[in-house]
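Notes to self after the call with IL:
- keep both proteins in one doc
- input above output, always
- annotate only the second one for now

Protein 1:
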Amino acid sequence: MRKLLIVVFFITISNAIQAQKLTGLWYSADSSRVYEIKAADGNQFIAAIKSSERKTDSVGYIVLRNLVYNSHKKRYEGVIYAVTDGQPAFVKIKFDKHNSNKLILKLNRMFVMDVAIDWVRADVSAP
């Protein structure tokens, strides 16, 4: 029984560590948008536009929904929505192997090859 509790404890800590890394502010690849990833209901996460230099963007628009951690594949999976037309796409998210402050988002698009985009953690400690 004690071994089971220890295993459950480490799984819980592992999930919490993953969540701490994922949540926060992230720049788009061209730094024109800042997204905020935060915990939602259950073990899910959402991401919304926190600020944008693009005139057509709506601050608060939720771009990622139903984002959950797939422990078997060691990645986050969910749905990403295009800001321009709201079209959904399945997204797989991993941290860059060499830079834990960089997310790699791979979008599955119908009839088109997968698209990869990067988000970089916003440095909130900068003046």
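Protein 2 (the one to annotate):
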Amino acid sequence: MHKIKALQLQYEDKINHYLHYTTIVIFFFLPITRSFPDSYVISFLFFLIYILLILRGNYIHYFSLAFAHPLTKAFFYFFIIHIIWLFGSENIHEALHTWIKYEYYSLYPLLFFSFIDKRFCHYFLSAFLAGAFFSEVLSYLMQFHTIPMEYSIHIHIPFINHDTLHYFYRSARGGPTPFVEHSATSFMLAITASILLIKLFTDKKINYLYLFFFATISMNIFFIQARTGYILYFFLLGYIIIFLRKHHHLSSLYFPKKLLYFIPLLAIGISIFMYNQNGIFKQRLEITQKRITNVIQTGDLSAMPRLLLVKQALVTIEDNFPFGVGSGDALKTLQSYPENQNTEITSGFIQNVHNQYLDILLQFGIIGLLVYLYLLYKIFTYKHPNMSTQRYLIKQIVAISMLYIGFLATFWAYIPTIIVMLLIITTAENKILKRLPEINKKTVFKLFLFILLSYTIGAIQ
């Protein structure tokens, strides 16, 4: 036992480095993973993290550091609500399966804060932007028919009797979104555009590649048929510009300050240009206008299923006030109402409540909603004394996105994973590593090989 502890102490810092490198690779795959917990690549990377944590030892010390973070506690309280309300579920097995699959992101702070060094934030963000850029390139190639809308490879390994069809990328619902369906992709692009804008004005070195990437993302958002992303994009950009103008003394603003006026003009100009192309952007806006007009004139909510869902959810919440129906039973309870028969709610087209706040009220009642609002409050008000302007701004745009997207979607694996992981790296407080390594060309090459290895292992599973 003493020899094991001695080895753990000897290699503790090196294992912490490996944990950070593995997390960098996770951040690369974060924007391009269709179903985060179900991905074999992600499962492999998390398996490595668990093994490294076991080998590192000193469990009480590190997890005490993680649990001391105020966001860890807030997420943990939300996690506990899911556990307690399982006992009110009509089908505990099904509810437990859904919770394990889509809700355990609440435990990510407890896991990652146990080894994340705040000085690595730049590297994690760079990996995230690299993954988003990779998705962006494929999206444009698909949009202009340079590559097919999907590409698969047949993997056959005789000596282990392995035979499968693996999709390298695949269009979701026929749109130019190579990895994730259009609504989630537009959310990711809006977040990415905001991070690029923040880095443009707060990095110490001017990076014109960020400006180019920002412009291409701004155009690509309007290629995708997702109204959610249109609104979030303009809302986040407006917040960032107002903040930088008001608090310019907090940042050096190395990029020319006149671009604070140019950026919104660029965004508006791109949206007008895309609207005049008579493409998807214009079609989506016209469809929305027609549906809203029809609802106002006729009062028939069938033209907008999500409004019908909200109306019926409010009825169900009133019937089950104040404690809700139990974990995992929100949509099932809605579908059981006689008036919802033969509507979009029971047709199979709607697979969730499409509103995070109503979903929580349905499942956990007013107690669950108060716990969730407390979580939002802690995220918005969190600010460490030594927190940089860049990290604070990114944390804020992620928090605003979380608040906004909750009105339009029930959180599933992709969206909350991006939110929680970005919150973790921007709010990390500790300096875990004894020394901070330089990420040079050799290290980048090794990380690239690690990415290829991870993807290959995921592909053959």
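Annotation: The longest strand covers residues 162-170. The chain has 18 helices and two strands.
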